[in-house]
Every structure is written in structure tokens, then in C-alpha cells.
Specification:
This protein is α/β, with parallel strands linked by helices. It contains 12 helices and 9 strands. The strands form 2 sheets. Strands 5-4-3-1-6-7-8 form a 7-stranded mixed β-sheet. Strands 2-9 form a two-stranded antiparallel ribbon. The longest helix is centred in the first third of the chain and has 17 residues. It is globular and about 45 Å long.
Length: about 270
């Protein structure tokens, strides 16, 4: 039987910053990027926070990032994300977003995070938030390193295509489903469901939402998820990628790392 689901964009919808920018300093500490790159990312992040990002900016960012990560060791990226996730992401999750996620789960709806950020970053965040599935950008990997090619780019119309494919596999009723995003570039995603909402929208999306009569939600309260982490007693929900393959291993390992770290008393 068909059932509704809830689809969430990640940056500025669930978390109050760019997920990729959040890990700039840890990536530098790990030797993956330079200080100049960190400064450049901070500059781009400032304009993203103030005015959003249009299609051309997103494309330039995509080209820049794919060139940047070429040759990176995938396991090193996953290790850095796991080790710094609590510090970089836990304090900047919107209280309103976590409340919505809990409401949808209480109503029996799956929660799906749909993000243009890389799966290695989005998977662990999804596990942390209790998401059921993740649709994220996937890079081509050869011999454990990124080649610089993109296997799936979760952006713009591609998000809508991936959501429709997932709905067909999982039996989601899109007409009864919900979607949340901050960006006009996610208009195809919002149009896919029967209950779209604009969250902290950029100017173009705010105008579009007003024209269509869509709800506009302003999330303003970043909150720590430490209490939620401390209450984790059962295995995390399996996080599934757009391909349909279970990717819960890396996500579960990250969540277990965070929980065990919290429960382990400090030395001395």
C-alpha cells in the first residue's frame, strides 16, 4: 500500500550552515586542503548564507569541488567526518527541523534527506538525525580514491527524478507527501509532492511560495543534539542511498562512534 513520506533538503533547512563548509577546517587539519581553500570556502559560504545560490553559482561550485576532491582518499574523508561530526554539525541543527522530523516519524512517515552534498558527508548526518533514507551526490571512486567524475549529482531536476524513483521502489504516495527546502533551485523537488514548504527561503523561492500559496517556515533556533545522542539505545535506522543499496555501515559506525564517545568516561 502507498504511504506518504517527508523529503528534507539539508543545508539551511535542517542545519544552519553549508554541510560542506562545516568540514573545511577538519579537512585542512587532515591535509586535504590548504588554508587558502578554507578562506575561499568561508567567503563563498558568507554569500550563500546571505543571498542563497543561483544555478550558475551552484555549477561553479560543483566544478570547483570535483576538481578539488580528485585524488582524495575516500576512507580518510569518512574518518574525518566521523571524528568531527559532533563538533561541526551537532550544534547547528535547527530545533524546528528536528521537531518536524519527529512529527513525521510519529505519523508513520519515512524521512528522506535530499542533498547535493556528497554521500560521505550526508550519510552520517542522516544517521545522526534518524533519517530513513538519503539521496545525495555520489562521486566515482577507483582504488579507494575519487576520480573527479560524478556518478549522480543530487541537484535541481535530478533531485525530483531521484525522489520519483525512490517513491516507486518504496511505495510512497507523492501526492500525500511533504517536502522542505530553502532554495529556488529545489523547485522541481517541491513540485513533486502534494505538500511543499519553503524553509528559510531565498528571495526567489519566497516569491514563488507566495505566488503558489505554499507555507513559508522560518527556522531560527539551532540546537544541540547531545541529548538525542545520549538517548540512543537501539541500532540506528538503516540509511539507504539513491541506488537503493544499503549504506548503513558507514552511517551506523559514525553514530556508534559518537554514542560510545559520549558514554566513555574521560581518562584520569
Amino acid at each position: 500500500m502507498s504511504r506518504p513520506a517527508a523529503f528534507f533538503d539539508l543545508d539551511k533547512t535542517i542545519i544552519a550552515r553549508s554541510s560542506l563548509f562545516a568540514f573545511s577546517r577538519p579537512f585542512r587539519a587532515g591535509g586535504l586542503i590548504t588554508r587558502r581553500t578554507v578562506v575561499r570556502n568561508a567567503y563563498a559560504h558568507f554569500f550563500y548564507q546571505v543571498g542563497g545560490a543561483d544555478h550558475d553559482q551552484i555549477e561553479r561550485t560543483r566544478e570547483y569541488l570535483t576538481a578539488l576532491v580528485t585524488g582524495w582518499d575516500v576512507q580518510q574523508v569518512r574518518d574525518i567526518v566521523a571524528e568531527t561530526l559532533e563538533q561541526q554539525i551537532v550544534p547547528v541543527v535547527y530545533r524546528e527541523a528536528t521537531a518536524l522530523i519527529d512529527e513525521h516519524h510519529a505519523a508513520g512517515r519515512d524521512v528522506v534527506i535530499v542533498s547535493s552534498s556528497g554521500a560521505e558527508v550526508v550519510e552520517p548526518i542522516g544517521a545522526l538525525l534518524g533519517a530513513d533514507r538519503v539521496l545525495a551526490t555520489r562521486m566515482v571512486v577507483a582504488e579507494g580514491r575519487y576520480t573527479g567524475e560524478i556518478a549522480f549529482y543530487a541537484y535541481g531536476p535530478n533531485k525530483a527524478v531521484a525522489v520519483r524513483e525512490l517513491a516507486e521502489r518504496e511505495g510512497y504516495d507523492l501526492a500525500a507527501s511533504f517536502a522542505y527546502s530553502d532554495s529556488f533551485t529545489d523547485l522541481p523537488l517541491l513540485e513533486t509532492v502534494g505538500h511543499p514548504s519553503a524553509v528559510n527561503p531565498d528571495r526567489a523561492l519566497r516569491k514563488e511560495a507566495a505566488t503558489r500559496g505554499w507555507p513559508v517556515l522560518d527556522f531560527t533556533q539551532p540546537v544541540s543534539l547531545r541529548d538525542r545522542l545520549g538517548q540512543v539505545n537501539a541500532p540506528p535506522r538503516p540509511v539507504v542511498l539513491a541506488t537503493g543499496a544499503v549504506a548503513g555501515g558507514a552511517a551506523a559506525a559514525t553514530l556508534a562512534y559518537l554514542v560510545n564517545r559520549r558514554r566513555t568516561p574521560p581518562a584520569g
